[in-house]
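Table 4 source record.
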Amino acid sequence: MRLATSCVLAGALASGTAGAYPIYGSEDRGIRRLEEARLAQAGEVSGRQKVAGALLTLEQVDLRLLDRRDLELPRPDPDLTRRLVDLLGAEADRYGLALLDLSDPATPRYAEHDGDVARNPGSVGKIAVALSLFQALADAWPGDTDARMRVLRDTMVTADEFIIHDSHTVRFWDGASRTLTRRPLQVGDRGSLLEFVDWMLSASSNAAGAMVMREALLLAHLGRDYPPVPGRAGAFFVDTPRGELADLMQRTSIGALTRNGLDPERFRQGSFFTSTGKRKVPGTSSVGTPRELMRFLLRMEQGRLVDEWSSRELKRLLYMTERRIRYASSPALHDAAVYFKSGSLYACEPEPGFQCRKYHGNKINLMNSIAIVEAPAGERRLFYLVTLTSNVLRKNSAVDHQTLATRIHRLLEKAHGVSQ
């Protein structure tokens, strides 16, 4: 039953490629890598094919709770919470998990395990950076979303020393030669402000995240005088006293969270993602709890992050990731629309018989995932939000989150009588 549904869905979406997302983005948003994604999906260039759930049209990538703005997180459902904890197994104390099941809109169910336990959010903190940028845009152009999009699309940003150091690769597409290059950002690389936001979220580039944080600070400082004239940005971070930069960071980053009803003591990105950024602009620690991350997702779905336009654009950015990894890579989600971000942080120390490997840390092994799942894509018989943090040592945390995604999805399929 599920296989047939997936095939029908894939065929229906493929037949309407003119308006399909992310194809729309390559034409109107100016994100160049999306043109390569469109050509690869059409078979015109070699490249990864997207799963059925990643092919929604632009109109289908929308907010689902605009009529439920008064909804807050319900009290945890004991039965659903018990079932979730059972999925975590013997090391449940190493996880934090929140689940909001909205499949039956009239009776939302919420489950939570260690929902207020704070861990470093890793790259999940980049959603807070995106929020601070959208808040600064709205402050400068409160009633003009067209102007905000023009700033995102038309402002050209040049990577500078703020990007040092980062090993994440991003995609550079040369439309003239139809060649795709994957490499880390380098000083001097240019892209639109929106491309840097995309690189930050879709490829989780720390370098791009640092540049977006830099631009958010400049935008908050300059308002409608943004973007700065050439040379002014670098001079601003050299000439401004460190105390004033710290205050600007606090107002821009932490302020965006509090103004949007979130608790920065439970979720914040307190500093830059790069060593140079941290050296130039003083910050603070970064934290995230499953419950506050869930409140972020809920408020986004309700159009309550900055405003409806900003919330929708944030959700679209979370949809058009380069590829599905970790939690979102679960085969059970192939026909689902998944809006996600993940982040990891692991470290090893000497231990007899232990070999340090990626995502297998024996000192710390943090993995964080947030996801909105609509399944099947376009139908939404299941609609739920998940936030998951973990610190399970010596275990492949990426595979662990993928496995948990499958188990949670199967649990909800069974609860709602959805056939596999």
